[in-house]
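Kindly review this record before class:
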Amino acid sequence: MTDGAATGVAAQTPEPLPEPAAVRPSSLLVTLGAGGAVAGVLLVIAFGLTLPRIEANRAHALHLAVNEVLKAPARYDTLYVVGGALTKTPPPGVDPKKLEQVYLGFGPDGRAVGFAVGAAEPGFQDTIRLIFGYDPRNRKLLGMKVLESKETPGLGDKIEKDRAFVSQFDGAQPPLAGVKGKRAKPTDVAMITGATISSRTVIRTINNALGRLGPLLEAYRTEN
């Protein structure tokens, strides 16, 4: 090979590409931070837009539940737990949504039929939220409905799906006692086989709520 040929070959050899510029850690952090901030703002905006609809759906579900556990009253009043008593008017400057609420139902004749009380306690998987109707005059429950539960599908979720279990609370006399097998007394609640923890949670939630609010319900009934 001649010198000219060698020179031609050398001239065709591609030059090496320049190495990419190193990314400074501070620049990367700034970029990630800016992206996270934008995502956060978008989430806040999206939540703000959907919150009214979520609250409206919850209010509608609660309205249906109150009517169910009070056996379709003609109307009901919202009462607030304030200073160890029930009142129809929340204190000035206090957000009513932050106060514990109880609902008093009335029949077509204007007479009170009972109170609907919401309560919640830890279950097997997560918190179980429920509402129940109670007639302090006869000291009997009017019904029970689970509002929110994440109990095991096919087992614990029977506390809201098993009609035989749910129907027991209509006419039951607190304080309730969980039993295995058939009911023998008005205070008995037959627990669900394979879901005794969830069953006991429902029973305990009602007993604790009435232990705490029962005197307030009775006092309001006699004074009004």
